[in-house]
Amino acid sequence: MKVTSALAACLRQATRDAHRRLDSHSVLRPLISPRLSYEEYTMALLALYPAQCRLEEAVARGLHTQLLDYPLRPRAPALADDLVSMSQSLPVIVETVTLEVCRPGQLIGLLYVLEGARLGSRIIAHNVHRTLGKQVPSRYFTVAQDDDSWSAFWQFAERHCPEQEQMAAVSAASAAFQLFLSGLDECQTTAPLGCA
Questions:
Q1: Which SUPFAM superfamilies match (predicted)?
Q2: Picking from 47-56, 75-84, 87-96, 162-171, which range would have the lowest pLDDT averaged per residue?
């Protein structure tokens, strides 16, 4: 679905650099490489887990406090299952970046990052299966791939994020990207010891 609204353009433009940094991060970049190793895959999952949990928790909290109904489909449990299946201990979740959800715009910004990540998961899942085989635990990247969550998100966003909330959405989306980038940087720093 091609989204052309002013809100979409605003979010896309404001987060372009953070999105590029995330996509090109040395911990995530191997996920789309034809030479992806099992160790690189494991490191990426370990690095993504804390941020995925925190972002989903913040969105769920925001939906509750804003009294809004949205078909949230958490992927953190699938990520946890993948890590356990790979005999990995779940990383400790430490608060590094605060995710505020006091306004509808903030919720939309967080959902923008959360639902946008689903789109990229399709490409990653294809590469993981091609390079490591279909037997590798990969529910995090494959769960709910056939749904129309991106379209549902934009319909929800247009209803609940008027123009005066756009900057709150941008700020929250930027914080969500920073949450993931901080986790990847931390993992990269501790890579010899593992990301836990």
A1: Heme oxygenase-like (SSF48613)
A2: 87-96
Tell me, letter by letter, the H, E, C secondary structure of the chain.
CCCCCHHHHHHHHHHHHHHHHHHCCCCCHHHHCCCCCHHHHHHHHHHHHHHHHHHHHHHHHHHHHCCCCCCCCCCHHHHHHHHHHCCCCCCCCCCCCCCCCCCHHHHHHHHHHHHHHHHHHHHHHHHHHHHHCCCCCCHHHHCCCCCCHHHHHHHHHHHHCCHHHHHHHHHHHHHHHHHHHHHHHHHHHCHHHCCC
Sequence-distant (6+) residues with CB within 8 A of 73 are 143, 144, 147, 149
Domain count, the chain: 1
Residues belonging to the chain: 196
Q: Are 182 and 96 in contact (CB under 8 A)?
A: yes
pTM for this predicted structure: 0.91
Here the tokens at position 187 are: 């993992």
Domain CATH number, residue 131: 1.20.910.10
The letter for the amino acid at 142 is: T
What's the CA gap between 133 and 59, in Å, rounded? 33
Confidence of residue 7 (pLDDT cuts 50, 70, 90): very high
